[in-house]
Each structure stands twice: as structure tokens, then as C-alpha cells.
Specification:
Layout: H1 3-14, H2 20-44, H3 54-67, H4 76-102, H5 114-117, H6 128-141, H7 143-154, H8 159-166, H9 170-190
Helix pairs in contact: 1-2, 2-3, 2-4, 3-4, 6-7, 6-9, 7-8, 7-9, 8-9
């Protein structure tokens, strides 16, 4: 995305306080490709036979954003971070529904290792429900580290983008990312995860 588009999207989002639905409708096309990138990233982390498609995930996130009257977006990165979090919740709800419908049939419990965080090919996918439960637990212990994971893992932000979005230094993001990742790996391996 070019600098002009980024600034344009940020300016449109600043007007959200005046006319939310109109500004959101104008801002989304400016960041649509980034939303698709985030959705593709999320869907690559899912099981191979996942039936939700990239466009459907982006559109569902947009619909949830449009329905929320209390949301205020400070910048393009803030909107993308919230959209990434919404996509996480959509996928978690989708997986819960699938598992409920099958009564747990075929549900695998997998643990994380360092390669899975990088999205390496051929690496088993993580259990999204277990990760969601562990991330909720982390949010109660350290909201900043939880935010770092949501932006880095779920929104696909770089260290710099995460730092900008959270208003902290890239070094703090790196430390928080490493600490949160280690905690989540341990929690998912030894903690009780939902089925």
C-alpha cells in the first residue's frame, strides 16, 4: 500500500466520529487488500479443509465493524489491528460451531513450537480454540503482551507496525513477543485447553 493510500485511510478514519458508517465505507476500499492479506494469513493457519474463504472472512469482519457503534479508530494500523482481532473471533466462533456440530469428532489437540509461529510450510496447524483460551488467559495477566500477540500473529503486523499501533518501542514489542510466545507455548502444552 502506498503512503498516499495510508494517509487517505487514516484521514477517513479520523472522521469516523462525525459520520461513522460513511467514513468506514470509504476507508475500507483503501485498505481492502491489507484486510485480504490478513484474512489469507489467518486461513493459512487453519485446517486444510476449512470452508471459510478469504473474501467471506473480510466481509464478515467488515459487517461486525459496521455494526459496532462504540468503536473509534485512531489510524489505519488501529483499524487493521481491530479487524485482525475480529477475524480471530470469527474463526474461533466458526471452529466452535464446527466442533459442536460434530461433537468433537476429529478435533486434534496440537502444541505449538517455534516453527509454527513463523507460518512454516509442512508444520502442523495449531488448535485455534486452545490458542484462543490461552490468549484470553494471557490478556488477564498482561494486556500488552496479549495485544502484541494479536497484532503480530493474528493481524500479521511487523515489529514496527505493532510498536506504532501500541505506542511502544520496537524493542519492547520484541521482548513482549518473545515472552508472550514462550508463555503461550507452555500454556498450550501443559494447560487445560477446551475441546
Amino acid at each position: 500500500m502506498g503512503i498516499g493510500s495510508s494517509n487517505e485511510a487514516s484521514e477517513l478514519l479520523l472522521r469516523l466520529g462525525i459520520a461513522k458508517s460513511e467514513s468506514l465505507a470509504q476507508a475500507v476500499p483503501a485498505i481492502y487488500e491489507e484486510l485480504r492479506r490478513i484474512a489469507r494469513y489467518h486461513l493459512r493457519q487453519q485446517r486444510p479443509n476449512h470452508t471459510l474463504q478469504t473474501t467471506a472472512l473480510v466481509h464478515e469482519a467488515y459487517l461486525r465493524l459496521a455494526r459496532e457503534d462504540s468503536l473509534a479508530f485512531e489510524s489505519r494500523t488501529h483499524l487493521l489491528g481491530i479487524a485482525g482481532q475480529l477475524m480471530r473471533w470469527i474463526l474461533v466462533d466458526y471452529e466452535r460451531g464446527r466442533r459442536t456440530a460434530k461433537r468433537g469428532a476429529g478435533a486434534e489437540r496440537l502444541t505449538l513450537d517455534g516453527a509454527e509461529w513463523s507460518g512454516a510450510a509442512g508444520v502442523p496447524k495449531i488448535d485455534l480454540l486452545a490458542l484462543d483460551a490461552a490468549l484470553d488467559k494471557l490478556a488477564k495477566l498482561d494486556a500488552q503482551q496479549s495485544g502484541i500477540v494479536e497484532l503480530r500473529y493474528f493481524a500479521g503486523f511487523s515489529l514496527e507496525e505493532t510498536a506504532e499501533s501500541l505506542g511502544i518501542s520496537p524493542a519492547s514489542v520484541k521482548r513482549g513477543w518473545n515472552s508472550a510466545r514462550a508463555w503461550l507455548l507452555r500454556e498450550m502444552q501443559f494447560g487445560a485447553a477446551p475441546q
